[in-house]
Design goal:
Blueprint lengths: L12 E6 L8 H11 L3 E5 L9 H13 L3 E10 L7 H12 L3 E5 L10 H20 L3 E4 L10 H11 L4 E5 L7 H10 L4 E6 L14 H12 L5 E5 L7 H17 L1
Parallel strand pairs: 1-2, 1-8, 2-3, 3-4, 4-5, 5-6, 6-7, 7-8
Helix pairs in contact: 2-3, 4-5, 6-7
């Protein structure tokens, strides 16, 4: 399977959309919206747009994506490492390949780091290692979601998990998670520098989603740090104020401007 951004200069930051931002839209409508906004990549979600049990649909979504001149950045599955239904990852991986995604997102367990016992942590790490072995045989990488309620809910827990798994195929997505401190988030990017594959981009406060432009101070610093990682990284818009298409188009224009400046 080809590299996510084959042919692009090292250190290039790319723009795109996470399809779950608009679960109410069809894959065709998602593609048309990304084309309209002049972004390039789509992370397709496995809950609505590309279920892991429908390979025919995955192939069709891949076709309409590439026919529009767009690229599949990732398959956003909802597989939870360490769970009881481990065989279900086979369907997830088949769908990833059929979709043409170079990366499959999984969740690092079903509990936060504080609530997880040493045995539970070990179980998640062992399963992630298994997933990486399977994915490697299919030419795909695995990325954890950097998210609350999992073992990547804090920088320390995430680093410990990646060290325990110790597999070259394991990557992570990054997004603002928990802290609102810009310096702390920059430290996350630096500490996870070897593992970051893609980024989920949004601006939220404690109370609501806000226009991305209001997060300019933090995001321009995050993007500069990401560019300095000297890796091809897709920066993917995820969720927008009021689930509005208009808000998305404004956020997309803002992101494109920031990337041009970066």
């Amino acid at each position: 399977m080809s590299d996510l951004c084959a042919g692009l200069p090292t250190g290039e930051l790319l723009s795109g959309l996470v399809s779950v931002t608009f679960r109410q839209l069809s894959p065709r409508e998602i593609v048309d919206l990304v084309v309209l906004s002049k972004l390039e990549y789509i992370e397709w979600g496995g809950d609505v747009h590309v279920p892991p049990t429908n390979l025919k649909n995955a192939a069709e979504v891949r076709r309409i994506t590439t026919d529009a001149g767009l690229i599949v950045a990732c398959y956003g599955s909802y597989y939870r490492a360490g769970g009881i239904d481990r065989a279900s990852f086979e369907n997830v991986l088949e769908t990833t390949v059929e979709l043409g995604a170079p990366l499959v997102r999984v969740w690092a367990g079903g509990k936060g780091s504080i609530a997880s016992s040493p045995d539970e942590r070990s179980n998640v790490a062992d399963d992630l290692r298994r997933l990486c072995d399977l994915a490697a045989s299919a030419g795909v990488r695995v990325a954890t979601e950097y998210h609350g309620g999992t073992l990547t809910d804090s920088l320390q827990s995430a680093v410990e998990l990646f060290e325990a798994v110790n597999h070259p195929q394991l990557m992570t997505l990054w997004q603002p998670n928990g802290t609102y401190d810009v310096a702390a988030r920059l430290d996350e990017i630096e500490s996870l520098s070897r593992s970051i594959a893609n980024v989920h981009c949004f601006y939220w406060t404690d109370t609501a989603r806000q226009p991305l432009a209001e997060g300019k101070r933090g995001w321009t610093e995050y993007l500069a740090a990401l560019k300095n990682l000297n890796r091809r990284i897709a920066v993917l818009l995820e969720f927008v104020k009021d689930d509005s298409v208009e808000a998305y188009l404004a956020d997309a224009a803002e992101l494109k401007h920031w990337l041009a400046q970066a």
